[in-house]
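dumping this here before i forget
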Amino acid sequence: MNMNIFKMIKSASIVFLLIFISACSPIEDRDELSNSFSPDNIVLETTQATPGSNKVSIKMKTPGVTGYWDYILDQKFTDEIKDIIFPFTGEHTLTYNVTTPYISSGIDNPEYIRKTIKINITQLDTPLPAAYYALVGEDLGGKTWVFDGKGGDERVWWAMTDPANSGAVWWNAGGTCCPPSDAGGHMTFDVTGGLNFAAYASPTASAQKGSYTFNADFSKLYIKGETNILGSVDSAGNNKEFQILELTSSKMKLWVPNASGGTGWIWVFKPQENK
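structure:
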C-alpha cells in the first residue's frame, strides 16, 4: 500500500513539473510566431483603365485577410477600391496594411504587416476634379499663391474669427496693425510626380517643402511634411487641416475653427500673377 501511494505521488509530481515548465516557456518564442504571417501570402492587384492611365482600381485578393489601403490620396479600410483618379504621373507605391490576429498589448494595439504594389502613371487621360485645376492651374503646370492683401489695407485676408462662425471676424490682424511675418512670401502647388507643396517666407527665402491632399469631397485641404501655409508661423497655430471656404482659379479662402487661443482663423490667397 505504501509503495502504491509513493508511485502515485511520484507520478503526480512529474505531471506538475511538466505543467510548470510549459507555463514558464520563454514569451519571446510566442512573440516570434506573431509575425509568421508573411507579406508574400498577400496578393494585390491594380487595374488601369488604359495602359499608363491615371484611373486605377486596386484590390487585395487574399481571402480571410483584413486591413486597409494607403493609396497616397487617402486611406480606406476595404479590400477593393474602384476608379481612383490620380492627379499626377510617375511611378508610385501603394500599400495594403494587414491586421494580424496577434495583439501584443491589448485589443487596441494590433500589429500590422504591409504589402506594397507599384503603379506607373504615364498619362492623365481621365479629367481631374475641379479643385485641382483651380489650385494648380488649368494646364496642371503648377501655380503660385500669395496673400490677397497688404498690412494695414483694412481688407480681411488674415484674421481671427469666432471659432463657430468663419464670417464673424474678431480681429482683422492682417488688414490693420499686425500682418504675419511671412506676409510677403508665396507658396506653390503642383502635381508633377506627386502632390507637391512649397512655402517661401519671403521673396528670397529658401523653400520649405511638403505635400498636400484633399479629403473625399474636396471640402478640406491638408498640408503634410515639415512646412505649412503662409501665416502659420505666428499666432494662427493649426494642425495643418484647413476647411475650404472658397477655391476658384482666382481665390483660395481657408479657415480653421481651432487656431491657438481657442479662436478661429481665416486666410485669403490669390494667384501671384494677379498680384
